[in-house]
Amino acid sequence: SIGELKKYSFEATIVNEDDLDGDMMIYLKHDYKVSVVRPDKIRMTVRGDVENRDTYFNNGSVSIIDADNENYGEVKVSADIDDALDDLTDKYGIPIPLTQLLYSDMAEDINASDKGYYLGTVLVDETPCYYIAFPGKEWDVQAWIEKGDKPLIRKVAFVDKMEKGQPRSMITVKWNLNPTIDEKIFDFTAPQDAKKAKVLTLEEADKLKMKSETQTDTEAKDKK
């Protein structure tokens, strides 16, 4: 499994359908470059139509910087990659793309249903892959898994059946299982003029929201 690799890197392209004010679906494309050194380091760079940012995981410290305006945030999480990804979602509500390629068990985050179809062997970038599909109430998931002793995800397609228009997402991946990685790339140093943003936990954000709503209610009563 991918979790047994000490280090690896990959490049991925994600194309998402997006609802344009209810008039039509448009396509948003993002390119990712990712390096992983287990158990505690990830460097992810994304450049695309909506997001341009760099993300650093380094032994329990996560730094995320917006490449356009140089605003950045830093949070403390568990050191282990799997636990750190869970912490970001559960504690801070920060989504990290491509987590199904970062967890030690790739199947953990692929949102597949129990019912599945095997649709044969097909070529993805001239590589034979098992083509499998999982229909579900909320998501339809299709995956192309490399045939052989390295069952890597080469392509994944999602259909979000809960959203209007059932938008689709397509992920394609190119792997390097024997990369040369300079571990200095995992060290984050903020640019000189960058602005640090305060990152709230979900609990802190809820408290602020409740406090704000209480103040608004009080002000409304005072005006009566």
Gist of the model:
Helices cover 15% and strands 44% of the residues.
Would you give an account of this structure?
The protein is α+β, with helices and mostly antiparallel strands and 224 residues long. It contains 2 helices and 12 strands. The protein has helices at residues 81-92, 202-223, and strands spanning 7-20, 24-37, 41-48, 52-58, 61-66, 71-76, 117-124, 127-134, 139-146, 153-160, 168-176, 195-196. Strands 7-8-9-10-11-1-2-3-4-5-6-12 form a 12-stranded mixed β-sheet, with no helix packed on it. The longest helix is centred in the last third of the chain and has 22 residues, at 202-223.
What are the key terms here?
2 helices; alpha+beta; 224 residues
Largest sheet: 12 strands, mixed
User: What order do the SSEs take from the amino end to the carboxyl end, as H and E?
Assistant: EEEEEEHEEEEEEH
Strand content: 35-45%
What would you report as the Rg, rounded to the nearest angstrom? Answer: 20 Å
Structural class: alpha+beta
Spatial strand sequence of the major β-sheet: 7-8-9-10-11-1-2-3-4-5-6-12
Q: Count of helices?
A: 2
